[in-house]
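pasting for ref. prot 1 ->
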Amino acid sequence: MSRLAIVDTEITSLVRGALLAGMSCIDCARTYNISKSSVSRIKARMEAEELINADKVTQNLDELLIASLNKHLNALNTIAEVATEKDYLRNQKANDLALLHEQINNHIVRLFQSFSAPAEEEE
């Protein structure tokens, strides 16, 4: 049985699909008539690509989280500024103002907790 020294892209794609479906390296080599080392190299490349993609996803999630937190902080700052204007204060009931300040405080505490949660997990 002759083994192909260079694996073309079509066979590589078939091997990748078979590996993803759970086929063993030996079975892939037999099925597609290539060496086990070629299958192992394809598998190693797949794992390396998977690690790179996982890092990119994590990086994108971190960027999205930071952007979201910044938007929420900006919104809370705007609300706090409006809530300290004299005209606004005069037209509100004391109970409503107390509830507003409680809500602002709760949101700020949650935002700070979300900032500190990853640091706590790393320790």
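and prot 2 ->
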Amino acid sequence: METKKARGLAIKELKRFVVDNYGEEGFKKLLEVLSPEAQNIINHPIMDAATYPIDILLEVNRKICEVFGNGDPEFARKMGNYGASMSLKGPFKIIFKLADIKWVIKRGPMIYSHYFPEMGRLEVIEINEETNTATIAIKDPPFKDIYYERAIAGWMEKVGRSFGEKNFKVEIIKSPTHGSRNIEFLVSW
């Protein structure tokens, strides 16, 4: 069976999160708890467009939460926030400057597939303009990982708030870690 892949940019942002927030000593602390395969990848230059095994991304994500967030899955939202901050300065900078929140939500599948081409399909199920809510799903993710779910929610929250939506909130309403086939988010602003 072929190993599913994630873009190097996602792993690179996790590494930057640790170094920016916990310094080189924090990075060394993280390396100590990673598998040899993850150490080998994260301790060398990571190419943004290259693909790496999903398991490495999930392991690094989980281990950061364990080492710096006492194992709390909600800590992963901070990593997602950080990743979105990098995206707002990086590859999607122009898109975010020219758009409004509904436009970005509609383009979510394209943005998600850029980072995670083999980690399920992001679909916008509904945008309700009367209630300022949207239901977004990651269909058929090839794994169950509570830390990943929280990181994606944190990424969405940061992007939403970058549009001046102070009350922007992302709630996980369905999850493979709780028996659902898909991950579903209720987004409100």
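The longest strand covers residues 121-128.
The radius of gyration is 16 Å.
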